[in-house]
Amino acid sequence: MNPVKPLNTTSHTAASHTAASRTAASHTASLPRLPLRALPLPGGRSLRWHPRAALVAGLLLLALLGTAAWTLTAGDYPLPVRDVLDILGGGGRRADRYIVMEVRLPRLLTALLVGAALGLAGALFQTLARNPLGSPDVIGFTVGSATGALTVILLLGGGAAAVAGGAVAGGLATSLLVYLLARRGGTQGYRLVLVGIGVSSLLASLNAYLIARASFSDAQSAAVWLTGSLNARGWEHCTPMALALLLLLPAAVLLGRPLRMLELGDETAASLGVRTEAVQLRLVLTGVALTAAATAAAGPVPFVALIAPQAVRRLTRAPGPNLLPAALLGALLLALSDLAAQRLLAPTQLPVGVLTGIVGGGYLLWLITRHWRRTA
Questions:
Q1: Please, is 5 exposed, middle or buried when counting C-beta atoms within 10 Å of its C-beta (0-12, 13-18, 19+)?
Q2: Is the model's pLDDT at 58 over the cut of 70?
Q3: pLDDT classification of 18: cutoffs 50, 70, 90
Q4: In 31-104, which ranges are continuous DSSP H helix?
Q5: E-strand spans in 277-322?
Q6: Tell me, which fold does domain 50-375 have in CATH?
Q7: SS3 (DSSP) at 47
Q8: Long-range pairs for 307-314 at CB < 8 Å and ≥24 separation?
Q9: First to last CA, the chain
Q10: Which of 100, 161, 188, 326 has the most other CB atoms within 10 Å of its CB?
C-alpha cells in the first residue's frame, strides 16, 4: 500500500490564493480594452484617461444640471428658471428666496452629496472585495451606522449632531469588527462579504429590538429614519456632508491606482509593490467614513451604493474602480429618486429610500435573471 501523504496546507492556501488572483486577472482581462489618452502634466508626468469614461462623466454632469433645474423650479410653488438664477445670484423676492434657498436648495444639495458619497463608497468596496455584492449596505456598514444613530435617538435622546456622531461611531465600530473577522490570511473578497452579511443580520436584529422597546412616537420617527429620507433636510445637514466629501473624495481618488492593482489579487498587487494590508485598511476606513457621513445626513438609503458602481462600469466599459463616474451616477440616482418621491408618485412626500429600494430590488432581479440565462 502506498502511504497517504499529509496535506500541505501552506501550498494549498497559496494555490487557492493564486487561483483567485488568476480569476480576478482573467475577469479584468475580459473587459473590453479601450484606448487610453495621455494628458501631459508639468514635471514630465502625464494623466491617463479613457475617452468613453470622460464622455459618460460629461453626460452625467449634464443630467445632474437638468435634474437640479427641475428640482428648483417645479413643485407646488413653480418658479421660472430666470427667477431661480436671479435668486442664486442674490436677488429675487423674499418669498421666492425662502422657497429656493431654505427649502429646495439644501435638500437638493444633500441628495447630491449623499448620493455621491454612497456611489463612491460602493465603488471602493466592490473593487476591494472583487465582488458586485460588496457594497456597504450588503456588508453591514450602513446597518452599523444605523445602529449607532438609533442608540443615540432612542436611548440617549441626542440631537442632530449627536445622531451624526453616533452614525459615524457605529459605522467605524462595525467596519473594525468585520475587518478583523475577515482578515485572517488576508482580506479576501468572499470572506469580507460573508462576514459582513452575518454581522449585518445581527445588527438588524438589534435595531429591531431597539425600536420595539421604544415609545410609539420615538419608534415611528426611528422607523422613518431607517427607511432613508431627505424630508426636512436643511443646511445643518448639507454643510457637514459637504465638508466630509471635501475631505474624503481626494483621499479616495488617491487610492485609485493601488485599488486597480488590488483587482488583480493580493499576491499580484504585492509583487507590483503595493502594501496590500495598509492599502486595504485605508480603503475600508475611507469607504466607511463616506457611508457613515451619508447615513448621518439621510439615514440608511438602500441600493445606491450597490447600483451606481456596476451601472457605471457597464456604461464606461473601462477597467478599474471608475470612482468619479460612480460618484456622479450615485448623485444622479438619489436626486432623481427624491424628485420622483416628492412630485411624481404620490400626493405626499415619500421617503427616498422607498424609491431606491424599488429600483434596487428590480435591478437585483434583472441581474439574477440575466445570470440564469447565461448559465442555462
A1: exposed
A2: yes
A3: very low
A4: 51-73, 81-88, 94-97
A5: none
A6: ABC transporter involved in vitamin B12 uptake, BtuC (1.10.3470)
A7: strand
A8: 307/122, 307/333, 307/359, 307/360, 307/363, 308/115, 308/118, 308/119, 308/122, 308/123, 308/333, 309/119, 309/122, 309/123, 309/126, 309/127, 309/135, 310/126, 310/132, 312/56, 312/119, 312/123
A9: 44
A10: 326
User: What average pLDDT score do residues 345-372 get?
Assistant: 81
pLDDT over 70 at 10, yes or no: no
Residues 75-108 pLDDT 10s = 888 899 999 999 998 888 898 999 999 999 999 9
Query: What pLDDT score was predicted for residue 65?
Result: 94
Q: Which helix (H) or strand (E) holds 354?
A: helix 352-375
Virtual CA dihedral for 93, 99, 101, 102, nearest 10 degrees? 130
- 189's grid cell: 473578497
Whether the CB-CB separation of 245 and 330 falls below 8 Å is answered with: no
CA distances in angstroms from 237 to 105, 230, 276, listed in the order given: 12, 10, 35
Rounded distance, CA 300 to CA 353, Å? 8
Helix axes 235-254, 276-298, angle to 10 degrees: 160
pLDDT of residue 72: 93
48 vs 268: which has the higher pLDDT: 268
| Alpha carbon distance 320, 306 (integer Å) | 16
- Break the chain down into helix, strand, coil percent, rounded to 5: 75, 0, 25
Beta 37-40 vs 46-49: how paired, if at all?
antiparallel
C-alpha cell at 306: 450597490
Q: How far apart are CA 271 and CA 252, in angstroms?
A: 23
Helices (H), 183-234: 189-212, 216-227
Handedness of CA 14, 188, 48, 272 (dihedral sign): negative
> For the chain, what are the domain ranges?
50-375
